[in-house]
Every structure is written in structure tokens, then in C-alpha cells.
Design brief:
- The chain is of the alpha+beta class.
- The chain has a single domain, classed as predicted glycosyltransferase like domains (Thrombin, subunit H), CATH 2.40.10.220.
- The protein is built from two helices and six strands.
- The chain has helices at about 5-15, 115-130; strands spanning about 30-35, 45-50, 55-60, 70-80, 80-95, 105-110.
- The protein has a six-stranded antiparallel beta barrel.
- Strand 4 (about 70-80) and strand 5 (about 80-95) form a beta hairpin.
- The protein starts with a helix and ends with a helix.
- About 15% of the residues are buried.
Length: about 130
């Protein structure tokens, strides 16, 4: 008998062999600034490329260690206003993009501040509705 975790691992491996992506969250393409708090305390500006309810993918001028946790903030656009999201996120992977001095960094969201998870949820729901029309 196959245990549940073993089944999931086999399915994930099969999907990887067949070239399938098995994502838990729908991703939406974006192009917006993201500010990351570095260990020195200073804010670094990066560019967000896509976002989901589970994480964000950015491009930045330096790599980041897998597993490292950062605080970040970004503003989401709602018609005539912007609402800020504050979140702690863990680096899932970091890699150089082509031969440029730019790195792609994928983050998984861990903890949102002050109900800002609701701001992100609202933004993603609106993006989803726009894609349907």
C-alpha cells in the first residue's frame, strides 16, 4: 500500500518528468516595484514579475540564499488608489538570468502584517475577474 506522502512524491516526480508544473496558486504577471529589507536594515528596490496568493517572483541585481527570510513591501493598484502590502517571505530559489547581472528570486509568503493579506486577496480576485472578461 502506498502512503499518502509517497503518492504525492511520486505524482510530483512524474509531473516533473513529463514537464508539468504543479503549482498550488494561480500566478499573475505584473511589473511593479518591490522593496526588500536587507539584513543591514536598508531597503533595496527590485521588480516583481509575477505574484500569487502563495508568493512572488522578482528580478534583482544580487542573489539570495535559499531559505533566507526577508521582509518586503509593495503597493497594489486598485483603480484610483494604491494599497500597501507588508509581508515576510522565504526564498524558495535564486538563479542568474541568462548572462545579465540580474537574478530571478522566487519567494514564498510566510506572514502578512495588519490584514494586508486581504489586500492581496482582493487584488488577485480582481485580476482573475479581468482575465475572464
Amino acid at each position: 500500500m502506498i502512503k499518502p506522502n509517497e503518492y504525492l512524491e511520486r505524482q510530483a516526480a512524474r509531473g516533473a518528468r513529463e514537464g508539468h508544473e504543479r503549482r498550488m496558486h494561480v500566478r499573475y504577471r505584473i511589473n511593479m516595484p518591490v522593496y526588500i529589507k536587507l539584513s543591514s536594515g536598508e531597503l533595496a528596490k527590485a521588480t516583481a514579475v509575477d505574484i500569487s496568493s502563495g508568493g512572488i517572483y522578482i528580478e534583482y541585481g544580487a542573489s539570495a540564499d535559499e531559505g533566507k527570510i526577508f521582509e518586503m513591501m509593495f503597493d497594489l493598484s486598485f483603480d484610483s488608489e494604491f494599497q500597501r502590502v507588508y509581508v515576510k517571505a522565504r526564498v524558495v530559489r535564486s538563479f542568474v538570468i541568462g548572462n545579465r547581472d540580474v537574478y530571478g528570486i522566487a519567494f514564498s509568503f510566510l506572514e502578512f502584517a495588519r490584514d494586508t493579506d486581504k489586500v492581496l486577496k482582493k487584488f488577485l480576485e480582481l485580476r482573475s475577474l479581468k482575465q475572464l472578461t
